[in-house]
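ARCHIVE CARD
Drawer: 12
Card no.: 0347
Subject: one protein chain, sequence and derived structure
Cross-reference: see card 0346
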Amino acid sequence: MKIIQMNLDDFGIYHNVMWNPPERGLIVIHGRNESGKTTLMKYVRSMFFGYLRGEWKGCFGHMDIRRENGREYRIYRNEKESYIADGDMLIHEEPAALWWHDLERTTYDKIFAVGLEDLQGFKILSNESVRSHFFSIESGVRMGVTSRDLQRLMGELFVASPQGKKPINMLLSAQHDVDLQIDRLAYDEEEFAALQGEENGTHEEERKVRLEIEEYKQQLERTAMPITAWNVYKRGQEARRYMQELADVAQFPADGAQRFTELEDKITLYDEQIRELKRNRSEASGFKDEWNHWFAAAAQIEELHEQLPQWRQDCAKLAENADSDRDRQLDKNRATRQLREWLDGAVPTAVDWESGLTVAMNLEQQTRGEEKWRAAKPTLPDTAQVPAINEPVRTKTQWQELGKNLASAQEILLERKKTAELLAWVQAEPEQHAYGFAALAVLCVTAAVALCYAATVYALAVIYAGVAAAFAGAGAFFYKYRQATTRKSKRSLALEADMERINKKLDTFAKNYGLTSCGGDDNETWQHGLESLRKEYLDWQTRSTRESWEREQQDMYQAMYTKWSREGAAWAERIGKIRGEWQAWQQQSGFIRLQAERLTEAKTIWEQWQRLDREEKAWEAERAVLEQRVGRIADKGEQLFREISIKKALTPAAMEDVYKEWQHIQVQAEVAKEQERQRKEEQVRLDALEKEKQIRLDRQQEVLRQANCHSAGEFRNKVLQYRRFCQYKEVYEQSEAHIRLIAKSPKNFSALQRELKTRNLKDWQDEQAAYEERIAACERKLAAIAERRGSVVERLSAMAKSDTGEKLLQKKQALRADLDRDVDDWLTYLYAQYMLREAQSYYERVRQPVVIRKAGEYLSLMTGGRYTLQATFDGRQLFAVDGMQRRIPEKQWSSGLGDQIYLAVRVSLAVAFSHQIEPMPLILDDILVRFDEERQKEALRFLADMGKEEQIFLFTCSEETRRLAEVVRGELAGETDTVHVFEISKGTIQAAAE
């Protein structure tokens, strides 16, 4: 597992810091005190295992890691919130439980985080958490966890304290209370006391029988040990017998077979190389005598080859320009004929073409201007004849009044149409009848007459008032009747009057404008009449506008023609002046027949004639030089061909073939020289191989003498026998170790060895069967005692004055059963823990040498091969072995050597842990301060080499360590992923300048 990115969003003095550490190599992080080194180490531990209790407040960050399988994860720790991001999936589980087999923070610190005070050497292997995680390889990574679980389960059942609150402690306390309660119950009956005594006696008998069972079980266990170890013992004894048979090869050199095989392989390799060299050797020389003439003329060949491109270029130029010269003459003659068209004499050598071009351009511009002037002569536009129209003759004022009255007439027609529609609607409305009002009026008159009669008869004043009221009501009802009958006739009359007024207006309009056919009430006829008037009005407007436009056009034409005439006189004057300038230029240049529009053509032909004339003169001079140079080269070439006996005609191609032949001769001569040199070298190498072969043969004979063998076949036979001897020895040692594990202690091991030698399997099996029978008999006794105690308890319960005693006895029995169950569980856990410890002790002895052997290799690398490590068989003592194979105990180590050994052990242990769980970053905190300069450089080289596979962080505040790291980086400059140096300062991480 590698850290690929650290994000310290808010962690101590770090705020919004992101750092991508290298995945390989030694990462040296230098900083002064209080610069943030310890905080950064704390951040790494916190990302892996979470924040410590009470230290999570204000801490935010996340870390990106890449595991061994290449998958990348991001670990988030934001105060109490923590989770792992796998792409879009979130995992709410701790990394240690998910990936590292419940690795604890303290165990990680003891293995992968090393400080100066942590260089405690070999004693780290005695740490319980380290042993439980590491030395449980053979029985799985759960051995340490199981041991801790057993310890926890035992603690959950019982604690060695009177105030303990665990189940066994509580049951013992409750049983003691019940016994006290039973004792306080007073019984006078002697029988009850006797029964109680008998019950207690049964408990004593049961205890004795159980002790007897335990003793038999121990004997049975002791008997089971030799039975278990018998097959292992027989296998070991058989291996020992074979070892004794092969005792004559016990002193055979351990590395003799390897040395003999290596020497034999070397001799075979030398034989093959000698045969290959002899087969490839060549005796004849490849140098020819006729090559000497060529080497004598080497300078001439090289000189002519250097001049060959110039020779070819000159010949090609002469050939090419011969044709070009003919073409040039033809072009020049053609240009001369064209120029004579405009000339009277020879072609002039100098002409002022700039002045001519200026005059010609002016003449052309003026001529074009005159043409434009002529084209711009103004013309009088044709006036269209307006056809005559038979219409009334009106003045302009009358036509304008007609336009206004047309709109008024249109509005009057609309008003007449609306009035006519309303009149038709009123006339079509049905008449309203007022018969109700008439009846009421008649009724009121009748009542008035009756009241008048009554007043006359009875002479009452009130009756006169009623008469008056009756007549008033009759009058009101009559008025309503009249109003309803006359309302319709008034509205109709008003609308008819409006229609008459509108028609009078229309008649007046028709009379004024001659609309005789529009009389009456036909609105459509009136619309046609108005349309004809409107058309006459529009025609008048059009004629009036056209006449005004024609008058304006006549005035404009007269002004334009006057202006055009004046411009024509000015153009004629300018053109006459410019024509005089053109004729003067013609006389000066000699082109007396040249037209101005062909001036550009004449200039182009004249310039072409001048160019051809210059080229002709230049070529004549150059051709003389080329012919002279080609002649000199040809003379040298003919002399060379005679010296080297070449019969070909001298040409550039022939010279090129000669030079190629010369190059081939040079190559062949060099090959001949190289072959001669190789022959000499091969002879030297052949002699060296023969010598080396003889040395290996002498060494092989020395190995045969050491092994007391006279031939290679006899030696190989002894090698096979020695390998069988080693195999039997390994089987014997494994059987001894297995028997030690079964015996559990050195004392038991000695006794077990004696019994295995003196007795046989059948005796132990018979003894085991006898003990099993005795245990079965004791079990039957226990059943009988329990049955008897049950009857006694029943009798006691029946004799009790109340059920209190019975309940106490039942409670006591229940407590006793629970206590027996919990005690059995506690003893089981204790025995299992003892067995695990014994097994772990055995695995320690087997596995520890692997760590020490790897640490020895690391120490040899760190000290340049001066020291390595050895450990005793039980792994309890460690020795440093120097180059003279002297074993130096731990007490005689110097502080520097001790720190190197302790560092090698810690690194070896970390690597072994990585193989068991997963490779993790190694954090080293100022571990080199007690090393001298040379030892620091050796340690840095070693850590840089380790960093090619592991990710190693070295934190230091020492300027010396930083400087030496840069020195080592310079020494390893040709390699990759060696040493990376970073600076920490006030919460920032920067790469150190190289």
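Annotation on reverse: The chain has 24 helices and 15 strands. The longest strand covers residues 2-11.
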